Amino acid sequence: MAVASNQKQGSNSGTGPDNPSAAGLRAISVIFRLLAISFAVVGMLFLLFPDGTVRVINAAGALFRIFPPAPPSALRFWLSLGVSYMALVTVMAVLIQGDPRRYRDLMPVLAAGKFCSSFTCLLFFLFSSPTFLYLLNFLVDGSITLLVLGCYAAMGLVEAPSRGEQWAGASAPILDAMLDTLMPANGGFAIGARQTPVAHDLWQYSRQLHALGPFGLALLLRGLEFGPYLFGPRPTRFTHLSAEERERYLRGFERSRFAVRRQVIANLKLIAMLHFYDYPDVQRAIGYDGTYLHDKLLAGPNAAQHRARLQ
In Å, what is the CA distance from 45 to each residue of 6, 124, 172? Predict the structure, then answer.
């Protein structure tokens, strides 16, 4: 495939500068290092200055003039539990930042702790006392929850190059059904997509575009597979539709009022048909001898450069 062969060989080698694995792991490691430092510092502030921490947060909330102050407490039992919790999340963050791959399973555990802290503060804010202390902790720990879960999901993308073959295998029936609908045998002409290696070449092309290319292609195909549950013609998978239903379903993408839906089918058709019409058997089937573009280039303003390139 001419389109695919022009890509640089190092783009999917797993070691080149475009490979996201090393950079992604470094970024995740830095994020959890910063989280570990912040957890440790905040835990020490809670332990050494419990009342002072509450006073500072009350002072910050007083600037808005709508939050009542949180009352101080002489009971240190909850402080002991809170400091223990901060020590635990600090240790988890330290372990994760040292080896994100090995300790990836700790990320949901840490996120669960932060979610519990955030959600309970939201409940206290709504149903107990609307203090700035509760709101602040809800926002901070809620943000940390999303950040940690985002890192957990990103780890799947960082490890994506090693799972490209799995995605290709799992999504192969969807891609075959789509190609057979767009370019069926004995449709516009005798040869169809299933009589060409276009499915294999699309996966290879996606790898050469980017290390995460197979993931992106698989994501588009999965959206196509489950789309009939939302857009019809009946609530089932795309691969379970009849040939006529598949054609009607894809036509609905092209005519949709939603730009994102139109763009999905446009992208899939673009990469599929660019490959399909580049095969010599297809070109012969549609009566194209391959000389039209060649002649146009040699008759244009940059003819000398194209002649030297094509020799």
Answer: 57, 22, 55
Q: Answer yes or no: are the C-beta atoms of 175 and 138 closer than 8 Å.
A: no
Walk along the chain (311 residues) in steps of 10 and give the mean pLDDT of each run. 41 43 85 96 94 94 93 90 95 95 93 96 95 96 95 75 62 90 84 87 84 80 89 91 93 89 88 86 79 80 80 68
> pTM value?
0.54
Structure tokens at 8: 């640089």
Within 10 angstroms of residue 246's Cβ, the number of other Cβ atoms is: 22
Give the C-alpha separation, 250 to 247, whole Å: 5
Backbone angles phi and psi of 257, in degrees to 5 = -75, -15
Q: What is the DSSP letter of 63?
A: T
Phi, psi (rounded to 5 degrees) for 42: -65, -40
Tokens of 30: 């830095």
Residues 6+ apart with CB under 8 A from 117: 85, 137, 141
The Cα 38–Cα 86 span in angstroms is 10
| CA nearest neighbour of 265 among 213, 235, 224 | 224
Contact 15, 215 (CB under 8 A): no
In Å, how far from its chain's centre is CA 111?
A: 19
Q: What is the pLDDT of residues 13-32, one digit of tens each?
A: 444 444 446 777 899 999 99
Q: Supply the pLDDT for residue 13.
A: 41
- For the chain, first and last CA: distance in Å? 19
Q: How much helix, strand and coil, in percent to the nearest 5, is found in the chain?
A: 75, 0, 25
The set of residues, in sequence order, having a beta carbon less than 8 Å from that of 30 and lying 6+ positions away, is 97
Q: Nearest CA to 222 among 146, 296, 171?
A: 171
Output DSSP code: residue 163. Answer: G
Kind and range of the H or E run holding 206: helix 198-209
